[in-house]
């Protein structure tokens, strides 16, 4: 073996043995390290969850103890008599009520209100105070007085877990099963500890720049449903502020290190936080502390077994590599000069053939080689060997070119070619036809099951992010499939049919594949007919119309707005659904004048109903016009209405779009005063970061979730989670597609702000709105 052969042998040995061995060792190390880190993270997450639950229990305990203190101190007979007396004995009340509540139950402020809610006694920080001191806290606590009097109800229609309101005894809260956590419903029981006949409202409240526990109690020993006692009895009101003493007690009992309160909810390094909210979900402040985490202990305990496993794998790889080295060296010595000469000649011939039939950028077969291979395969298909032609077009490739430049685009094409080649077998052909268009000839994949498996692998591979010149790019691929001999054996005809299927895939959302069917040819003709008739309808105004579906306030049942829905009555085909003609309008450039026409109709209705908001759906294609935002603003301005009355509904794709034209249009519309609603929330990416960036005003829960309420095991939990998320971000939440009373009841209790669906009203022309509104008023009055 000469020196050159020895060098080649070492290279092959490194490539075939040492490199795979190193890769296996690396993967083993990554798996061991990743497993340790994941175990530590899981332990830390459980620790954080447990400590946050302890914080919430501490707040609940503070509320229950304050109410229990009022029960024991303020509901004795003499105390009730003094509270009802025209001239109460302030010294006696100081000693037996105000000061005792401070000493025993940490109540910083205690007030007594007479039957007409006027203050007759006040104690502040264990000092007697004038009754007028109540005026400082009255605005914040008045709603709790109304709850005890029975003059108001909570938005959820029932007492919380720490109080007992008139006609609403505390009841357990039952949550649906959470898949992966528990198969049984979760029940949270009330913790109220007062006597069954004691009526009180207990909650957390914000007073000035401080957060406090508040409890308002009826000073009467009477049955809970005694409305006369509820309406005319004095009230005992106590406040305990969340101060350093509360934090110290909570930290000592629940192991919270360096606990503190913060209104900004901005944890320092090493801190975590828990929100402090009232029973209605309003954020008041946050408690921050340094959590005790057990992840490091878990990692330390598992480190030795993981290291031992790694050493065992390394030893096995070493032994195998030594044996393989001996075997490869023996094979190398048997090679001769004839083989090397033959290899040189073959390489030269292959190079010349490659240059004639392969793409320069990617090295893939070009159109000429693909054509030759397709003709040969189709000849075999005529004798019963099935095959398929796949046409592929990259999604969002233009965005990569626009954002990172053409060099990045070329690099992306090369990366895509490499991934496609790794998926497709040796007998099959992957070719680049030009630009971002590829073609695949599947000779072995003639059966539908094999083809679908290959298609799924292609989609999965190209959905993974690409590292391009130091940047990360995301693209997808749309695929059209034509089968032979089912749909012919002529190459040009099959290519045309695959192209039709490709465009159907793009029409139906991209990043998917579609098989050609005969109905697609018919649909192409139908779309051409629809385009011509739609142009005519836009020119004459005949057949087009806008219907309006009422939006119902969930709390009061009133109509707060209308959603504008486009309708087209075709002279031959009757009512054409929007999902058929809107894509035609988007493809043919008709969406811009069609959208402007709908906006003008909606503005006319908005002017006729100035107290109602009008929701208008926008197509993502409309945002591609540079002057789209200015044109919409001009239509609203010419109509003489405020942009605040118009709510623009966009899909998640618009919010997530990285194109600067789209993002700029959305930003200018919001600056002009239009409100933005995110339609069909939950069916796409549902990105929280983009919700924050674009300051969306409303999210609309897709009707597919609403229709599954009470049927699918996860629908209830998903809807509740979306409502909670929306309210936590300060957004209004609308549920569409409400069709049953059970759905309405659930959505109201979940906290949805606005409801929409056939249960309330179907979409109707503008001239029927007045009659529908009068009908709703008569029903409400009845």
UniProtKB/TrEMBL annotation:
Domain GGDEF, residue spans: 385-518
Signal peptide: none
Family matches, as CDD domains: EAL (cd01948), GGDEF (cd01949)
Superkingdom classification of source: Bacteria
Residue stretches making up the EAL domain: 527-777
Organism classification: Bacteria, Pseudomonadati, Pseudomonadota, Alphaproteobacteria, Sphingomonadales
PROSITE patterns: EAL, GGDEF
Record-level Gene Ontology MF annotations: catalytic activity
TM helices/strands, residue ranges: 292-319
Entry keyword Transmembrane helix: yes
Keyword S-adenosyl-L-methionine: no
Pfam families per the UniProt record, alphabetical: CHASE4, EAL, GGDEF
Stated name of the protein: EAL domain-containing protein
UniProt entry keywords in alphabetical sequence: Membrane, Transmembrane, Transmembrane helix
């Amino acid at each position: 073996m000469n020196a050159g052969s020895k060098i080649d042998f070492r290279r092959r040995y490194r490539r075939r043995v040492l490199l795979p061995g190193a890769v296996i060792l690396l993967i083993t190390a990554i798996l061991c390290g990743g497993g340790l880190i994941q175990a530590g993270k899981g332990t830390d997450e459980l620790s954080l969850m447990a400590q946050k639950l302890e914080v919430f229990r501490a707040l609940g305990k503070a509320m229950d103890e304050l109410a229990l203190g009022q029960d024991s101190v303020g509901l004795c007979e003499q105390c009730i008599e003094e509270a009802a007396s025209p001239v109460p004995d302030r010294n006696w009340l100081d000693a037996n009520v105000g000061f005792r509540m401070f000493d025993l139950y940490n109540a910083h402020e205690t007030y007594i209100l007479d039957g007409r809610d006027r203050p007759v006694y006040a104690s502040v920080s264990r000092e007697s105070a004038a009754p007028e001191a109540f005026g400082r806290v009255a605005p914040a606590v008045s709603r709790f007085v109304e709850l005890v009097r029975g003059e108001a109800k909570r938005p959820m229609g029932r007492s919380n877990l720490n109080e007992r309101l008139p006609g609403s005894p505390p009841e357990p809260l039952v949550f649906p099963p959470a898949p992966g956590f528990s198969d049984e419903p979760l029940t949270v029981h009330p913790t109220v500890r007062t006597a069954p006949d004691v009526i009180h409202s207990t909650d957390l409240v914000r007073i000035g720049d401080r957060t406090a526990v508040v409890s308002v109690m009826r000073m009467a020993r009477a049955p809970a449903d005694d409305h006369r006692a509820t309406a005319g009895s004095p009230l005992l009101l106590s406040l305990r502020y969340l101060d350093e003493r509360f934090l110290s007690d909570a930290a000592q009992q629940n192991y919270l290190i360096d606990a503190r309160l913060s209104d900004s909810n901005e944890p320092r390094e090493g801190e975590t936080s828990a929100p402090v909210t009232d029973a209605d979900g309003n954020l008041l402040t946050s408690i921050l502390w340094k959590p005790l985490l057990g992840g490091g202990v878990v990692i330390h305990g598992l480190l030795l077994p993981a290291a031992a496993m790694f050493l065992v794998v390394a030893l096995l790889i070493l032994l195998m590599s030594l044996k393989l080295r001996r075997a490869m060296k023996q094979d190398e010595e048997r090679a001769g000069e004839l083989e090397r000469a033959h290899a040189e000649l073959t390489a030269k011939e292959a190079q010349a053939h490659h240059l004639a039939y392969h793409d320069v950028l990617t090295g893939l077969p070009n159109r000429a080689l693909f054509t030759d291979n397709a003709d040969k395969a189709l000849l075999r298909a005529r004798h019963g060997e099935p095959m398929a032609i796949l046409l592929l077009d990259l999604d969002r490739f233009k965005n990569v070119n626009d954002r990172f430049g053409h060099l990045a685009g070329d690099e992306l094409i090369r990366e895509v070619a490499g991934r496609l080649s790794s998926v497709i077998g040796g007998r099959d052909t992957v070719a680049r036809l030009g630009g971002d268009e590829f073609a695949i000839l599947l000779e072995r994949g003639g059966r539908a099951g094999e083809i679908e498996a290959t298609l799924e692998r292609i989609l999965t591979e190209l959905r993974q992010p690409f590292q391009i010149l130091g940047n990360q790019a995301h693209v997808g691929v749309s695929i059209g499939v034509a089968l032979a001999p089912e749909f012919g054996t002529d190459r040009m005809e099959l290519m045309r049919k695959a192209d039709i299927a490709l465009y159907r895939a793009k029409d139906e959302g991209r990043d998917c594949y579609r098989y050609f069917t005969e109905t697609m040819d018919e649909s192409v003709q139908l779309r051409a007919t629809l385009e011509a008739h739609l142009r005519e309808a836009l020119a004459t105004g005949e057949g087009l119309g806008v219907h309006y579906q009422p939006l119902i306030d969930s709390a009061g049942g009133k109509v707060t707005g209308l959603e504008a829905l486009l309708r087209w009555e075709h002279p031959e085909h009757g009512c054409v659904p929007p999902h058929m003609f809107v894509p035609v309008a988007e493809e043919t450039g008709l969406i811009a004048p069609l959208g402007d026409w709908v906006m003008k109709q909606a503005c006319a209705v908005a002017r006729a109903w100035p107290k109602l908001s009008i929701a208008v759906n926008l197509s993502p294609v409309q945002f591609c016009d540079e002057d789209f935002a200015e044109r919409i603003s001009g239509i609203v301005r010419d109509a003489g209405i405020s942009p605040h009355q118009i709510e623009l509904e966009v899909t998640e794709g618009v919010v997530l779009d990285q194109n600067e034209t789209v993002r700029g249009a959305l930003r200018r519309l919001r600056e002009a005063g239009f409100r933005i609603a995110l339609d069909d929330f939950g069916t796409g990416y549902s990105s929280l970061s983009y919700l924050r960036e674009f300051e969306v005003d409303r999210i609309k829960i897709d009707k597919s979730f609403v229709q599954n309420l009470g049927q699918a095991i996860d629908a209830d939990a998903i809807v509740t989670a979306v409502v909670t998320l929306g309210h936590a971000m300060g957004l209004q939440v609308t549920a569409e597609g409400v069709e049953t009373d059970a759905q309405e009841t659930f959505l109201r209790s979940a906290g949805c702000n606005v409801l929409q669906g056939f249960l309330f009203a179907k979409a109707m022309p503008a001239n029927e709105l007045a009659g529908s509104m009068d009908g709703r008023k008569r029903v409400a009055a009845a």
